[in-house]
Amino acid sequence: MDASLSEEQHQIRRTLRELLLKHCGPDDVKAAVRTEIGYDRSLWRRLAEQLGLPGLAVERRYGGVGCGPTDLALASEETGRALLPSPLLATAGLAAPLVAALGTPRQRAELLPRLAAGELTAALAVPGCTLPAALGLTGPNDGAWSGGGRAGGVQGRPVEGGRSWRLYGEARQVLDGHCAGLLLVAAHAGGYARSRTLLFAVRPQEARGVVRTRQTALDETRPQARIELRDTEAELLGADPDSAPALADDVCGALTAVGERVAAVVAAEAVGAAERALERTVEYARVREQFGRPIGSFQAVKHRLADLYVAVQAARSAAYYAAWAVGRDPDAEAAPGRGEGLRPQVSAAAVPPPGHESARVAAGLALAQALETARIVAGEAVQLHGGIGVTWEHDVQLHFKRAASDELLFGPVHRLRERAAEAAGLFGAGTGREAVAL
């Protein structure tokens, strides 16, 4: 593995950082989150047109940049530094890979170019508050999280001889679900006899029976919504399950594969946010005086800041390795001229094969370490800023809310580590901690 970045990756980071410094300062962030959609539409359009950010990991044949998940993670590190409120994670991190992995040729040709261009935003809606489970981050993805029987979760039933579907149920904590032009809804179908989890495409502006309510979130830079579906018409993502019985397994497998990528992306994003919070704290420690001298001159403060710096660098190393492991293509690495730099150059539609345990372990551990580091750094930043650190007027509180919210959305950290240990084979045949194989 060559851990150095390519020149193209350096250019992406430099251009993105310069653009965000100009148009996504703390005041811009606070103004954007208070709008109806929760982000700056003009900035999102600029990121899409100038940098191709939504299509960074989409194949070129569908109008994307074709870089792969590693480059998306590196870009997300910069968006994390700025705490950019945008539909990037929901659209490019969650929805686009699912459409690429499960969609029919017609669905890919129809949806992916619009997603890559940024003109269509999307959100993944899973029942209840089960996003980590649905992505296979906190346990084996067997589809149980989607609800069972005839009640609970989101239920799907075929109509017109199976040519179309109707959905009924509710999904909460849907990232950017209040304004997305496309909803990918995970629903339970088949009742008791043919129980399975399927994925459906819903166009909320066209379908009837869709009620979307933006919720009050701890972190306003990650807007969340409650989606209610009342006999809503939906399109099955992928082939007809009657003609492709393995589709339900494909859905769970695709969600797990996307979970690995999302873990690497969120880990890089958390590292960027933690690094910027540390920089703000160091700047403050240099100018804030106590007892006639800057507080940064005290040895105890120096030690705390040094520990935070080491933690951020360790989390970055883990996030970079996870991004490389998730996007790694063994066949491409063996070919001459391929696999140079950190970027693995894999197809955006490629889904890691079953048993891709090394990537799963790396992604889970990197996400756990990054979320924990972001929480610790943000907490120390508030402490070292004193009372001003928790006020709305100061910027460090935005980092603290982002760290706390991400751990609630994608954690908890101890379950991420436990799942990674299970995937690595550190547990025996039992299900409890007493089964750990020492």
UniProtKB/TrEMBL annotation:
<keyword id="KW-0560">Oxidoreductase</keyword>
<dbReference type="GO" id="GO:0003995">
    <property type="term" value="F:acyl-CoA dehydrogenase activity"/>
</dbReference>
<dbReference type="InterPro" id="IPR009100">
    <property type="entry name" value="AcylCoA_DH/oxidase_NM_dom_sf"/>
</dbReference>
<feature type="domain" description="Acyl-CoA dehydrogenase/oxidase N-terminal">
    <location>
        <begin position="6"/>
        <end position="119"/>
    </location>
</feature>
<dbReference type="InterPro" id="IPR036250">
    <property type="entry name" value="AcylCo_DH-like_C"/>
</dbReference>
<feature type="region of interest" description="Disordered">
    <location>
        <begin position="333"/>
        <end position="354"/>
    </location>
</feature>
<feature type="domain" description="Acyl-CoA dehydrogenase/oxidase C-terminal">
    <location>
        <begin position="264"/>
        <end position="423"/>
    </location>
</feature>
<dbReference type="Pfam" id="PF02771">
    <property type="entry name" value="Acyl-CoA_dh_N"/>
</dbReference>
<dbReference type="InterPro" id="IPR013786">
    <property type="entry name" value="AcylCoA_DH/ox_N"/>
</dbReference>
<dbReference type="InterPro" id="IPR046373">
    <property type="entry name" value="Acyl-CoA_Oxase/DH_mid-dom_sf"/>
</dbReference>
<dbReference type="GO" id="GO:0050660">
    <property type="term" value="F:flavin adenine dinucleotide binding"/>
</dbReference>
<keyword id="KW-0285">Flavoprotein</keyword>
<dbReference type="Pfam" id="PF00441">
    <property type="entry name" value="Acyl-CoA_dh_1"/>
</dbReference>
<keyword id="KW-0274">FAD</keyword>
<comment type="similarity">
    <text>Belongs to the acyl-CoA dehydrogenase family.</text>
</comment>
<dbReference type="InterPro" id="IPR009075">
    <property type="entry name" value="AcylCo_DH/oxidase_C"/>
</dbReference>
<protein>
    <submittedName>
        <fullName>Alkylation response protein AidB-like acyl-CoA dehydrogenase</fullName>
    </submittedName>
</protein>
<dbReference type="InterPro" id="IPR037069">
    <property type="entry name" value="AcylCoA_DH/ox_N_sf"/>
</dbReference>
